[in-house]
Specification:
Blueprint (H helix, E strand, L loop, with lengths): L1 E4 L6 H9 L8 E6 L5 H9 L5 E6 L4 H11 L4 E3 L6 E2 L3 H10 L5 E11 L5 E6 L5 E2 L1 H6 L10 E4 L1 H6 L10 H12 L4 E13 L9 H15 L5 H7 L1 H9 L3 H14 L7 H13 L1 H19 L24 H7 L9
Helix pairs in contact: 8-10, 9-11, 10-11, 10-12, 12-13
Length: 346
């Protein structure tokens, strides 16, 4: 298990506690401090003193890809999983993922689960994020613009990295998608299997890589340039749906219109392709300016509804069970951080 960590003092104890609370207990846990300037490393070392499974690895600040690569060079396990230092795992994440992977055909190199968004205070989003059922090859992975959605929801065979190499440290965004594509193209285990259970909570917060829409657009453009040859005509249209939405969201309207033209040409029924297709149809009909305005209104509305007590929400809005809370970090860690852990979780 690997946690890359950089300046995440308010969250790292909670993330580490969730990893340590797994129902599968036989694992090595590498926490890589990526040159943090706050008390992230101190908190990790304090937890390491109470649990022999933890090894804290310290490096210079070089980004999440470099931190993961540093851990991969010293990791000894048969399987690899990444829990970013501000995310949370369900206690059964490893157990359910490993059972799925071990029962899969040998060409399946990774399993990824459904997940739920949380905000910087740990409040859950309204709905869970599911992928389409089944196994994913390189074409399906790129056409879906990275269905796993984040690096914390996968368990992979360590052999994937031995065959395909390590994370690209020169990328600013889409680091995960690039790695998954190379595993699917260059390893003997090219399939990723979806596990339709909500087992991860993925935090979106200001300052994180995923919050920079401009960098995400640039990253998606690079992925389409590097790997676009794997796409058929229809999958090429599908592969541009989410990038077009992201481009319009980031104010890259010229890029958004260019990608929208590709979608219209190769996938004219895009507006019925789930939430991303619907979002793109809003921009196509209303134009970028009004599309962004409607997007902001919808986001505020969803945020308000998500704050309502769960008992007041229709069951159909709460697809999938929420990640069960693990025990809170020890009180001594709360004093180290200088603040209570992020909450509330409900």
């Amino acid at each position: 298990m690997i946690t890359p960590a950089y300046n995440i003092e308010p969250y790292v104890a909670e993330a580490m506690t969730a990893v340590l609370a797994q129902t599968v207990t036989d694992f090595e846990y590498l926490v890589v401090d990526d040159g943090s300037q706050d008390r992230t490393a101190d908190i990790a070392r304090q937890l390491a003193r109470s649990d022999a499974r933890i090894r804290v690895v310290e490096g210079d600040h070089a980004g999440s890809a470099a931190a993961r690569n540093l851990a991969l060079t010293v990791a000894r396990g048969t399987y690899v999983a990444f829990c970013d230092g501000d995310d949370r795992w369900d206690p059964q994440f490893l157990e359910r993922s490993l059972a799925t992977l071990e029962s899969a055909p040998p060409e399946v190199g990774a399993v990824f689960s459904a997940f739920r968004h949380i905000d910087e205070r740990g409040r859950r989003g309204l709905t869970a994020r599911y992928a389409e059922p089944g196994d994913y090859d390189a074409e399906r992975m790129l056409a879906g613009s990275c269905p796993p959605g984040n690096g914390s929801c996968l368990v992979l065979r360590r052999s994937c990295f031995a065959e395909a190499g390590l994370f690209d440290e020169d990328l600013d965004s889409c680091i995960d998608l690039d790695m998954w594509m190379r595993i699917q193209l260059d390893s003997q285990t090219p399939l990723f299997r979806f596990l339709p259970e909500v087992l991860v909570e993925w935090r979106r917060r200001p300052g994180s890589i995923s919050s920079d829409d401009g960098k995400r657009v640039d990253g998606l453009a690079e992925m389409l340039r590097r790997y676009g040859a794997v796409l058929s005509r229809r999958s090429r249209g599908a592969a541009h749906i989410w990038p077009a939405v992201m481009a319009f969201t980031a104010g890259r309207d010229h890029t958004g219109r260019t990608w929208l033209q590709v979608v219209r040409r190769d996938e004219p029924w895009f507006f019925v392709r789930g939430r991303n297709g619907f979002a793109l149809s809003v921009f196509a009909i209303l134009g970028p300016r009004w599309g962004r305005a409607l997007q902001r209104v919808a986001a505020r509305g969803a945020s308000l509804v998500a704050r309502l007590p769960t008992r007041l929400l229709p069951t159909r809005l709460l697809r999938g069970h929420p990640v069960r809370a693990v025990s809170d970090p020890p009180a001594s860690l709360v004093s180290v951080t200088g603040a209570a852990p992020p909450g509330p979780r409900g």
